[in-house]
Amino acid sequence: MYTPSCFQLLDIADLQRTMREARTATLVTATHEGLVGTMLPVVLDESAGSMGTIYAHVARANPQWKLTPTGEAMAIFGGAEAYISPSWYVTKHERGEAVPTWNYVAVHAYGPVEFFEDSDRLREVVTRLTDVHERSSKDRWAVSDAPADFIKAELEGIIGLRLQITRLDGSRKMSQNRNAADRAGVIEGLSKSNREEDRRAAHLIPKG
Q1: How many CB atoms lie within 10 A of CB 92?
Q2: Residue 93 has pLDDT above 80, yes or no
Q3: In this predicted structure, what is the pLDDT of residue 138?
Q4: Closest listed residue to residue 74, CA positions, set 30, 12, 137, 115
Q5: Is the dihedral of CA 85, 90, 91, 93 positive or negative?
Q6: How many CB atoms within 10 Å of residue 18?
Q7: What pLDDT, on a 0 to 100 scale, did the predictor assign at position 43?
Q8: CB neighbours of 14 closer than 8 A, spacing ≥ 6?
Q9: Is 32 exposed, middle or buried, given 0-12, 13-18 or 19+ CB atoms closer than 10 A?
Q10: What local confidence, expressed as pLDDT, does residue 98 receive?
Q11: What are the b/e assignments for 58-80, b being 16+ CB within 10 Å?
Q12: pLDDT tens, position by position, 161-192
């Protein structure tokens, strides 16, 4: 990932928090048949390995798991993002020297990927994924709520995956390279947007 030093995310806890908040990732593998990518809900186990381990599953009908990777895999996580208008900059009104840009948060996680069919491991993965996303629900659903035979049949339709992270690239580009007045203008502009994502990005821009 191209990341100027002023935008780099280096703290492991910050990188992992960004991955958790994203909730999904695009898994990309390079194969002899070309690049293959699949968007997946994922769970991050921060305690497994020095940088954490990603767990997810793909449909058995998805050919990605059958195509042997030629190297490490990459999981792409996206965070808040927003278009930034030059009209929000004080600099634009003073000198006219401003162009549009895009603010965003992104993390790329790399490592060897393992695909597996073991039913016990698959059950553990789907249980962990379910528990993560059901924890805030008033009426939580659990894998154990469904008939055992039904879950067994459902598990036969998926393939588990495990990616132990060996390196991480992260970027938080949130107007850090602009002066305080320009940043204040961007915060004001995004905060007035009808898009929830824009308002979310406004909270990530440094003040002062």
Answers
A1: 16
A2: no
A3: 86
A4: 30
A5: positive
A6: 21
A7: 96
A8: 170
A9: exposed
A10: 81
A11: beeeeebbebebeebbbbbbebb
A12: 999 999 999 999 999 999 999 999 999 999 99
Please list the residues that pair with 34 across neighbouring strands: 31
Distance CA 161, CA 165 (A): 13
Q: From its phi and psi, is residue 175 left (phi > 0), alpha (psi between -120 and 50) or beta?
A: left
What distance in Å separates the CA atoms of residue 74 and residue 76, rounded to the nearest whole number?
A: 6
Mean pLDDT of 5-32: 96
pLDDT at 136: 86
Token pair recorded at residue 59: 């449909």
CB neighbours (10 Å) of residue 95?
9
Helix ranges, 63-106 (H): 90-95
Whether 115 and 27 have beta carbons less than 8 Å apart is answered as no
For 1-71, strand residue ranges (E) read 24-31, 34-41, 43-45, 53-59
Which has the closest alpha carbon to 58: 36, 30, 39, 78? 39
Per-residue pLDDT, 137: 86
Q: How far apart are CA 2 and CA 144, in angstroms?
A: 44
Which residues, 6+ apart, have CB-to-CB distance to 124 below 8 Å?
none
Q: In angstroms, rounded to a whole number, what is the distance separating the alpha carbons of residues 148 and 81?
A: 42
Q: What is the mean pLDDT of residues 38-65?
A: 96
